[in-house]
Design goal:
Layout lengths: L20 H28 L4 H11 L7 E2 L2 E2 L3 H14 L1 H21 L2 H13 L4 E4 L15 E5 L2 E12 L6 E8 L2 E8 L5 E5 L11 E11 L12 H35 L1 E2 L2 E2 L4 H29 L5 H26 L10 H13 L4 H13 L6
Parallel strand pairs: 3-6
Antiparallel strand pairs: 1-2, 4-5, 5-9, 6-7, 8-9, 10-11
Amino acid sequence: MTTPDPLDPLDLLGVDDLLTEDERLIRDSVRAFTDRHVRPGLADWYEAGTFPVRELAPELGKLGVLGMHLEGYGCTGSTATEYGVACMELEAADSGLRSFVSVQGSLAMRSIHAFGSEEQKLRWLPELAAGQAVGCFGLTEPEAGSDPASMRTRARRDGTDWVLDGAKAWITNGSVSDVAVVWAATEEGVRGFLVPRGTPGFTARDIPGKLSLRASVTSELAFDGVRLPAGAMLPLARGLRAPLSSLGEARYGILWGTVGAARDCYRTAVQYARDRVQFGRPIGGFQLTQAKLVEMALELEKAYLVAVRIGRLKDEGRAQSAHISFGKLNNVRTALEIARSARTILGANGITTAYPVLRHANNLESVLTYEGTAEIHTLVLGEAITGESAYR
């Protein structure tokens, strides 16, 4: 009779064993990258409200994670689960880092890859994949968040050109982007446009006063009579289905990424409970602390299993929008609760930048509502269960 391996306190069910050799290699490579290039500076970036996009983007390109799930044009063509594992390790460092990669790859690059002309793909995708250029995705507006159909940004034809007017808000990478993928209402329905940096009438400014996702660039975009040539329009993008399909790809990254944030909080709490001595013993020896850690471990493993299952469905071509909503709703909520519980174990130390838990908790407050609020994903699942739409 063989002796079972000792349990890993950070992975009690051994969910890591469900990953393939290639998936574990990607996990380890991205984890090593964040340890070397990201974690040493995170506390300072977060406190200062900065993110070194131009320094990190080429390194992320060399790592191969920018648009890694796309085929050709300098992209690695990874599986959905491999991309998910990468997102998990990126967000274990910080949600802002995973957001940068998600917006670059799943929103900007994916929109060009899926809906662009060959000329547009050749112009932008290799540079974006290498991190030599940065992209953003302009859909959300100040008055149109969960209801993008009410967007006020308009594009009208003027001869062979298009003229773009309007504004976008809460745009990750906005002010540092070399190209913005912008969605606007036209007489033909919603269409997508590529707006390069420096185009006359196009301006971007960072949103001040953020208490969440501070190590991330978040901007407002303004378009005042922006004249674009006919070749700026994404020819295959017609209607809201186009931008929403790219959002589905980004949401998929979120349901994996939040597992990483939760794991980082749980790992920190376990180590702190072992090291922190009160009343003559480590606080991990007290029942109430153990109860918190056990609850965190249970929920973390379940969220990880959800991510793996949806990844496999996606690789098999069987994932539907309701699956993505299931994962985002469950895993973001789980991660946020784990972060909050971890903070209580760390006590006052938990509110400092010396530990990652409150940084993760603050970030997850944004992740909870961006790219589909909990309420919207609840209604997606409600419709899947009942067959009735309750949006209006």
